[in-house]
Amino acid sequence: MSDVARETGDRFQPKFDAQGLMTGVVVDASTGEVLMVAHLDEEALAATRETGLAHFHSRSRGTLWCKGETSGNTLRVQEILVDCDQDALVIKAQPAGPACHTGARTCFYRRLADDGLLQRIAS
Amino acid sequence: MSDVARETGDRFQPKFDAQGLMTGVVVDASTGEVLMVAHLDEEALAATRETGLAHFHSRSRGTLWCKGETSGNTLRVQEILVDCDQDALVIKAQPAGPACHTGARTCFYRRLADDGLLQRIAS
Predict the structure, then answer these.
(1) Residue B5 belongs to what H/E stretch?
(2) CA-CA distances (angstroms) from residue A4 to A11, A86, A91, B47, B101?
(3) Is some CB atom of chain A closer than 8 A to the CB atom of B90?
(4) Rounded to whole angstroms, how far apart are CA atoms B37 and B77?
(5) What's the pLDDT tens digit per position in A64-121?
(6) Collapsed DSSP state (helix, strand, coil) of residue B45
(7) 3-state DSSP call for residue B44?
(8) pTM value?
(9) Domain ranges in chain B?
């Protein structure tokens, strides 16, 4: 597939990197807030589309995981957006609970302050 | 640095992957919309913090690039959020123009429809 066709066409042709992964950005479908970033391989993408629940590939464990499979804090997919070169997805989802394994609503609960330290901003 | 210290502490200790990269999600500081996803190495992160303009590492060219250096469509950084394990950033920025090289406001201008095809949603 040419770059132009990939960028302008209506054919979904996800581009996985050398590790077989693409980036998934999960956004709260209600608020638009970024909740987490994780990676999808072909298997995780298929599982996400089939079940309507966000699945990812764990780079550390090397396995498929359904977000929330143990915690119950699943992410129900409402819409998937695809970027120009089809190597990243925005997954708009309804979270069943805190998205972060730390218990925070979002994984992005700290900001980088001018002094170079991290400041907590969300709970 | 322990996982707990990385997740709960105030020390910024970005975690780069085996390719020396971390994920950057650029969000429009005014609207919260996700504009693009790109990758930062240590050099791009330093350049972003020093200049206040979003810089990335091009995986295809293997070089540092300042977003908008040729198009003029720079991204002025307003705030940087860091996720729990410090391997991804949300970069809240003010775009000087369309964020996407195709001329679209955001790189995420298509949605994956139920029939498996891509539908254009943004201009």
Answers:
(1) helix B3-8
(2) 12, 12, 24, 31, 12
(3) yes
(4) 14
(5) 999 999 999 999 999 999 999 999 999 999 999 999 999 999 999 999 999 999 999 9
(6) helix
(7) helix
(8) 0.96
(9) 3-97
Q: How far is CA A104 from CA A100, B61, B94, B110, B119, in A?
A: 5, 37, 27, 30, 33
Provide the shortest C-alpha distance from residue B24 to chain A (in Å): 9
In angstroms, how far apart are the furthest CA atoms of chain B? 46
In sequence order, which residues have a C-beta less than 8 Å from that of residue B86 and are 6 or more positions away?
A: B6, B12, B13, B14, B15
Contact B99, B37 (CB under 8 A): no
The per-residue pLDDT for range B75-119, each reduced to its tens digit, is 999 999 999 999 999 999 999 999 999 999 999 999 999 999 999
What's the Cα-to-Cα distance from B107 to each of A7, A20, B25, B35, rounded to whole Å? 10, 21, 11, 6
Nearest to A110 among B27, B81, B108 (CB): B81
CA-atom Rg of chain A in angstroms = 15
CATH of domain B3-97: 3.10.20.810
Pairing between strand A55-57 and A34-40?
unpaired
Chain B: closest CA distance from residue A51 (Å):
13
Give the pair of three-digit tokens for residue A2: 């040419």
Tell me the two tokens of residue B94. 């003010």
ipTM: 0.96
Q: Where are the alpha helices (H) located in chain A, listed in sequence order? A: 3-8, 42-51
- What are the phi and psi torsion angles at A6 (to 5°)? -65, -35
Kindly determine whether residue A83 and residue B37, on different chains, have CB atoms separated by under 8 Å: yes
Are A99 and A35 contacting, i.e. CB atoms less than 8 angstroms apart? yes
